[in-house]
Amino acid sequence: MFGYRVPAPDEAMLISGGRRGLGGAPFRVVTGHGKFVLPVFRKVRFLTLSMCESEVTETCVTRQGIALHVRAVIAFKVGNDHESIINAGQRFLSDQEQMSVLTGRIFAGHLRAIIGSMTVEEIVTERQKLAAEVLDTSKTEMAKIGLIVDSLQIQSIDDGDTGYIDAMSAPHKAAIQRQAQIAQAQATQASVEAEQVAARNQAEYARQTAIVKAEYSAEVDRAQAQAAQAGPLAQAHAQQEVLAAQTELAQRQAKLRQQQLVAEVVKPAEAEAERVRILAAAEAQRMKIQAEAAASYDRVALDRMLIDQLPQIVKEAAGGLAGANVNVLNGADGLGEIAAGLVSQGLTILDSVRQNLHGQDSEGQDRRPEENKLKGLIQLPARSEKKSDDGPVDVD
Predict the structure, then answer these.
(1) If residue 378 lies in a helix (H) or strand (E), which one and from where to where?
(2) Which of 161, 191, 261, 286 is most open to solvent, judged by the fewest CB atoms within 10 Å of its CB?
(3) Per-residue pLDDT reduced to its tens digit, 85-114
(4) Are 395 and 326 spatial neighbours (Cβ–Cβ below 8 Å)?
(5) On the CB side of 225, how many CA atoms lie within 13 Å of its CA?
């Protein structure tokens, strides 16, 4: 659009001809955006904000009176704030190249002043310290003209034909040369040792190669000798293996035959013997049970027979008393007592017979007929005497 002006990113637009700028400046400052400017009534100029460079080559005298040729490079620019732009615009807007010239002169003066307070050794060994001091002393002065310094680099320091710096570096050079010679000697020694090690390794390799060749030759000879004897030895080994196989087969057959005999003869015989033993034990047990049953039956039968004969025994005893002359003095009570005595005597006789018969059975003797035993055991007294309340009773 006609009359609308926009500054570049690294420029500041200065508009004059209208109202005054900040701080009573004769122009207004515009950065970063455009502005409408009335033609004819307003005038627009541009101030660069980009980086500038100034080179300084100066001869300076140290505190020791030694002249040094110093070369330095300064990187600077106009400050971004309005105050710096106004200060730089008022001084350099018509001739902006003067910024580099003036900056070089300012730094040359400060450089001479600072080097004059230092020794050669300090200047050579502490260049960064020298640059920092120059920047600090020039900062205030550069700010007054609207410039800021980004960096200061001391590129070279030369003492001309005096040779002071060379003399100062001579000990270091000598030390470096000495270290280089030592390093060279060490490298030479290491090379010689490496060559010696290589020679020893070669000799050892040759010796090991000879040993290997000798062992290989001996191994070949042994292999040939074994190959020559391989036929008979192989046949002998084969026969030995055949005999071992036959022996093992025979042992297996014998073991199998033994197992077969055990299965066909021994086991059936043992089973038959066990069967016979079991049958014999069963038969003996049967006979024992039958014998015990028979003995028990005989005792029961005998006891029954004795009980059946008891009345006969009492009868025989009474018959013996029939012909006896018995006087009963106490009447009916006396007769009852006589009868009770006969029965008691009969039971005693029965018990004696039973014991005698059972004892003879346990000894295995033949039993006599029960009637004869009973008759032999019955013995009646020829005469007995019984007392009563009335006096003795004579029995004839």
Answers:
(1) none
(2) 161
(3) 988 988 898 889 999 999 999 999 999 999
(4) yes
(5) 6
